[in-house]
């Protein structure tokens, strides 16, 4: 049971939020999305109108959804685009692969991946040919490592990653090392924060570890934004440092893409991978993305008396990575497509790509990542202000572990609760129709997504949070 909150504490913030929302030139973007209602999130059935669960719940008030760091909400246009995809399939069958339809906004399926890469490139700051929309995040990390992790047991063989990396990244690295017949004990190096109570890792600490292992490190895998703390790493500085030491660096951009502007090409990033179901709103488990800098996918052609011979970096290959011009000639010789497209393996799910591109249309409407980032900084700063306006009794029960510097974070704030408060606080938040996520045993992550959250959401969250937190403390 949530504790009553001193309403007056929040009325000033509510008024401020209304003004900020009123002045917000991107506020119309929220209307592009289905924000679940408070009734929706309590309902135990698919169908709207079932009030059996809670007769008092308002059917139309949106819930406070601050969980785009986990799963973005659904753009309204997604259903329309998927319907167009279904109609193409229903009326054209296999012809949908290559036959353009005059009244369709969707390309023939054979070109769906190219269109997705073109729409994705500005979001990650890449040339179009440096991006492939393919597979899923962990698989893409494996594909990149299979191409670029070439350990020499007597030379460079180590992989550096964070000790608290997202588990899938950790497993991927472990298995890559073992796959090459090496031992994680000697070939895996982890970066730790020097302070147990502060999980933030400084650029300096990362550089120091790189220097220490520079001679025998083959690869670094780091997150653009750390999933647990919300820390935005200094991607250009760390990339330059790694490259100066001759180390290939791959970035996991799951929490950065669609959240902060990226300039992967100009930052000289070697390679990167990301998912599209968080800030990119592609839908659960949607197709992933990969970046390969143009210098890393060069194909050289040498002509001899016996004809021309192409050389390219080896990779785990499949027919979709083959050059489009010869892909359907069904020849046994692999001729990679130019750029990141040459790292594709299977033909992609057009259903997924259709869903993703519907959301990328909204990013185009927004004018790209720069205006969104400005908006996002204001939203997260306001969330911080709301948190600092909480009662002293409530503030004693948690601390923010995300860096206070807006340049070192994206949308998300991670709040570390006192021991034993997490479950009851999450229950109290759910009671108020607040959707956020938890990382056991102590952390909740709260992310006002740049595209669809508003200032009012921040107040609603903090009001519910104070009540839930105090109640959790009393129940302890
Ligand atoms: C930082 C990070 N890396 C990797 C993954 C795994 O992604 P996938 O299941 O799409 O491979 C996630 C999933 O949330 C993630 O947050």
Automatic annotation (TrEMBL):
This is Uncharacterized protein.
